[in-house]
Automatic annotation (TrEMBL):
Gene3D superfamilies membership: P-loop containing nucleotide triphosphate hydrolases
Organism placement in taxonomy: Bacteria, Bacillati, Actinomycetota, Actinomycetes, Kitasatosporales
This protein's name: Plasmid partition protein
Length: 225
C-alpha cells in the first residue's frame, strides 16, 4: 500500500513521516518500508543517508507531477511512505500522489494557524477540495481515505480536543493517537531513529491496525487442549 503524508505548509510532516516509517518497520507485523521523498526540500531523503539518519530502508527522490505514472503502490505488507511536498506550494505533486494513495495522513498541530491553512486558506485551495478533485482521476472514483494526525500537542491542553472536534466537523476522521510536543522528535532531524515503536508512533501503528488501515497477517488461534 501507499501512504501519502500531506500538509499545506510546514506542520512537522517530514518528522512524523520518518518516525512513523520506523515504527512500521519495528512493528510485530514486520512491515517492509519504502520511502519516497516527493518534496523539493529533499529533507526525508537527506535524513535517510548513512552519514545522518542511516535509515534501514531506502528513500527515493520522487518530487514529480508524474508521480502516479512513475510509482506503483506495493502489495502485501510492503508500505510505501510518501513525504509529499506542501500542497500550497506544489499542488501538482499533491494531485499526482493522491491519484494512487491508499491512505492519506494529514499532519497538523492543534492551532488556529494550521486549521486555517487546511480549512480556510486565504490564497489557496481548501484541502478537502484537493481531496475531492482527486476522486474522478482515481481507480475507485472516490477520494482516498484520509485521517488527521494531530502533532506537537501539549499535555492537558484544551486545544487538542478542540481541534479534534473542529476537524471532525469539517468531515475528517481524526486519529485518537496524538503526537506530543517533544524535544526528542523536534530535534531528531538528521539523526538515527531508535525504538520508534516505544513512542506515540508505535501507538499510532497499533491504532491504524485496529482500524483496518494497515494489512495484518491473520493468525490462527491455538485450539484449546
Amino acid at each position: 500500500m501507499l501512504i501519502a503524508n500531506v500538509s499545506p505548509r510546514t506542520m512537522a510532516k517530514t518528522t512524523d513521516t520518518a518516525w512513523l516509517s520506523h515504527a512500521l518497520e519495528e512493528d510485530e507485523e514486520q512491515y517492509d518500508v519504502l520511502g519516497y521523498d516527493a518534496d523539493h526540500s529533499k529533507q526525508f531523503h537527506n535524513w535517510s543517508k548513512k552519514a545522518k539518519g542511516d535509515f534501514r530502508f531506502p528513500v527515493h527522490l520522487q518530487a514529480s507531477a508524474q508521480f502516479h505514472k512513475e510509482v506503483v503502490p506495493p502489495a502485501g505488507k510492503t508500505i510505501a511512505m510518501v513525504d509529499c511536498g506542501h500542497s500550497e506550494n506544489h499542488p501538482h505533486i499533491t494531485d499526482s500522489v493522491l491519484r494512487i494513495a491508499d491512505l492519506v495522513i494529514l499532519h497538523m498541530s492543534p492551532t488556529g494557524a494550521d486549521w486555517e491553512r487546511i480549512v480556510e486558506p486565504p490564497d489557496a485551495t481548501p484541502f478537502m477540495d484537493i481531496l475531492k478533485r482527486s476522486a474522478p482521476l482515481r481507480a475507485t472514483r472516490r477520494m482516498p481515505p484520509t485521517w488527521v494526525l494531530l502533532n506537537r500537542t501539549v499535555a492537558n491542553a484544551s486545544s487538542t480536543g478542540y481541534y479534534r472536534e473542529e476537524m471532525t466537523k469539517e468531515g475528517y476522521d481524526v486519529f485518537t493517537t496524538a503526537i506530543p510536543r517533544s524535544e526528542m522528535f523536534g530535534q531528531s532531524l538528521g539523526f538515527p531513529i531508535v525504538d520508534a515503536r516505544k513512542t506515540a508512533f508505535g501507538s499510532l501503528v497499533t491504532e491504524m491496525k485496529k482500524r483496518g488501515l494497515l494489512p495484518v497477517e491473520e493468525r490462527e488461534e491455538q485450539a484449546e487442549q
